[in-house]
Structure formats: C-alpha cells, structure tokens
Amino acid sequence: MISSRRSPVPTKLRVNLRLDLGSARFLLIWFGQLVSIIGSGLTSFALGIRVYQLTGSVTRFAFISVCFTLPAILVFPLAGVIIDRSNRRTVMLASDLAAGFSTLVLACLFFFGSLSLWEICLLVGIGSLAEAFRLPSYTAILGQMVSAQHIGRISGLLQFAPAAAQVVAPALAAVMMGAIGLKGVLLVDFLTFIVAISTLLAVDIPVLPREAAHTSWLKDTAEGLKFIARRRGLSALLSFFFIINFTYSTAQILLPPVVLAFTSPKMLGAILSSGAVGYLGGSILMVLWRGPQKRVHGLLISAFVYALSLVLAALSASSALITLAAFIMFSQIPVMNTCSQAIWLFKVPLSMQGRVFSTRMMLAWSSIPFAYFLAGPLADRVFEPLLQANGKLANTWISCIGIGRGRGTAFLLMLNGVLALMFVAGYYLKPQFLHVEKNLPDTVANHSSKIDDGTSLTDSVFSA
Questions:
Q1: Which of 276, 331, 391, 430 places its Cα 20 to 30 Å from the Cα of 297?
Q2: Structural domain contains residue 450
Q3: What values do phi and psi take at 450, rounded to 5?
Q4: Does 116 reside within a domain?
Q5: What's the CATH code of the domain at 249?
Q6: Total domain count, the chain
Q7: What is the 3-state secondary structure (H, E, C) of 129-172?
Q8: How many CB atoms neighbour CB 17 within 10 A?
Q9: How many Cα atoms sit within 13 Å of 420 on the Cβ side?
Q10: What is the pLDDT of residues 248-307, one digit of tens each?
C-alpha cells in the first residue's frame, strides 16, 4: 500500500527552494533601483554638460554637481533615523516618487523653454534629497535579505547602483546628448522612476520588528556618529573614503574639460563609455569572486591602481591614452566599494544600519561638494593660465604634458592623482585601518530577530 503521506523534503533541497525565491526578490529590487539611479545620474551629468557648452565655465559645470550632492549630505543624519523607525520599502517608494516628480517638472520647464540655472539647481536639489533616503534604505535592505556568507558577493551587485550614477551615467549621458538631446535624457530619467516604483511594489520585503521605545530624534541622529567614533577601524575606513571621494570628484569635474579641449563631445562619450565597460568588468569580477579574503588589502591595492590611472589620464592630450586610463580607473571603483561595503555590513547591527549608513554617507560624501567648489575655480583661474602659450609654466619641464587649452586642467588632474597616491601609501601605515576586520566582531551573522511572517531573518535570505 502506498502511503498518501508525502515524504519529507530533504533539508538541503528545501533550503535551495527558499533561497531561489529570496534571490529573485532581491534581484528584482536591485534591477529597479539600478535603472532608476542611473537615470538620476543621466540627468545630473547631462544638465552639467549643457551648462558647460553654453557658458564654457568649469565652475558652473561643477555647481550643477554640487546641487546633486550637497542637499543629500545635509539631510543624511535625519534620513537615517527615519529609515530605522519606518518600513524601509515605504521610504524607498516615497523617495522614488519625489525624485520622479522633480524630473517631470524639470522636463516640462525645458520643453516650454523657460528653464533657468536656478531652476535646474532647485530641482536637482530635490532629487538629491530623495537620494538621501533611498540609498541608505537600499543598503540596509541588503542585510535583511542576504545571508552573511554571501554579503561580499551581493555587495558587488549593490554597489552597481549608487556608483553607476557616478560612472556609467556620465558615459551614457554623453552619448545620449548627441543622439536624443537633453529632452530625450529627461524623458528616459522619468521612465526609470516608473520601473523602480513598479519593482518595489511587486516585492515583499521582510520588515524588522519595531523597537519597544525610541529615544529622542536628536539622540537617535547622534547614534550613528557615536557608533563610528567608538570604533577606530571604521573611523579610519571612513576617512579613507573621504579622501578617495575627494580625488574622484575632482577628476569627475576635470576630465570632461580636459577631453573637450582637444576633441568632440562624441569622443568624450566614447572615453566615458570605456570607463563604463571597465566598471562593469570590475563589478562582474566582484560578484563572481566575492572579493579577497582580507578586504582591506584588496581595497588598498585597488586604490593604488586607481590613483595611478589619474596620473596616466593627464600625461597627454591623447584620446587613446585617456581611454585606457578611464578604463583602469573605473574598473577599480567596484572593487573598492565592494570591499568597503562588505566590512560595514558585517560590523554594523541590522537595527542600526539606517543611522550608521546615513552618517557614513554624510561624512564620506562631504568631501564631494568641497572638491567641486575647489576644482572649478582652480582650473579656470589658476592652472589654465599657467600652461597657456605665455604662461609661467610654459617653458618648464611640466610643459611636457602639453600647453594650450585644457592642459592646465590636466596638470591639476595629475596633481590630484599624486595626492591620491600619497594618501594610499599613508594608510598602509595605519594599524587600526589594516586590522579593522580582525579587531571588530561581526554582527550580521548573529542576528536572529523575528520578522513579520514569523520566520527568522536568517531564514528569509538567500544564498547560492
């Protein structure tokens, strides 16, 4: 007689089925956010290029980028408290709606021919405020859905989105500006928000249990800063990225004028596209590889290669050389980001990740507007005159990189790379930085809090 009772499903098979479902959930969210954040980056960079083409001012070009980052930096601490006290999917939905609305208004103003510089800055700033809520929420959700042993690998996917706005989006924007113009870029950006909202509505995200009581908003806001300050290794890691962000943001402002000084916007698009290919390759490598066993060492090596590429890009007004430098530089960004992200995810408790990650982003990103404000005036008023035909450096050995339009800016780009090399070498001598993984205990693997559906957090995540 055949029993009607089903045989028990082997544990291994049962786990695999559950993990496949979790994988599909996270990948759907990841895809929607990737598309949306790249769309935001398209608009920011395309507007900057448009302003530079109309005015010829590196300073005004940089000012658009400041408006895209500064509001987010200012509101990050408050955003972290709201994220930890709220449903993180709801926060992400609200931020996507706000950013989509600002893009829609921006497009309407441009279509009717009444778009001014101050309106661009205001609307880009609204999008920046939305990013302050979206990015930390997105990062914190990873800890809720991904198993500890695969955080390093999935961090490679997670880093695709925010970094793509800085790397892939400029390359695509430069190409799209020539093909469909600014109107087309704005339309594409608006459509990306629809994709992001649709994927968030389609996925059931585990919800963390509410804490019994909250302290005051002010104390909650300070908790993220206190958490980092009490851990010297994390503080050193944060200061490292403060410097890396400064040098990268400076390069982001300087590289387009350097290229446009001797070639066309189409070639700029091709050069940035090569960087995007390098970035894609580095991201795929980190997804497949999971990163080095000692992530800090991988971080330092990739940062050293990145710094060398900045120097390489400034050596000559050569499209081929700058294309190679862009490929190398951008390929190292996902390696640095993934190594860093995995360390933070392991060392910060899930219940505090909103506050800590928001504080971390605020401090690490605070160097970005400083770089933007500094790079533009320095290039326009100091370095460009130095390497003109009658400039003070025109007859020195420095003129081996060339003289004329754009070469003073290239010299500033080279000094930026030298600065990065010096700081990377200095961090090899910081023991609290080198041993952060060993000195701080892991927290993610120890979470066993229950979520809404009655399963544990470790049961709701996936692994391959």
A1: 276
A2: no
A3: -90, 145
A4: yes
A5: 1.20.1250.20
A6: 1
A7: HHHHHHHHHHHHHHHHHECHHHHHHHHHHHCHHHHHHHCHHHHH
A8: 9
A9: 30
A10: 989 988 998 899 888 887 788 788 778 878 887 887 787 777 667 788 999 999 999 999
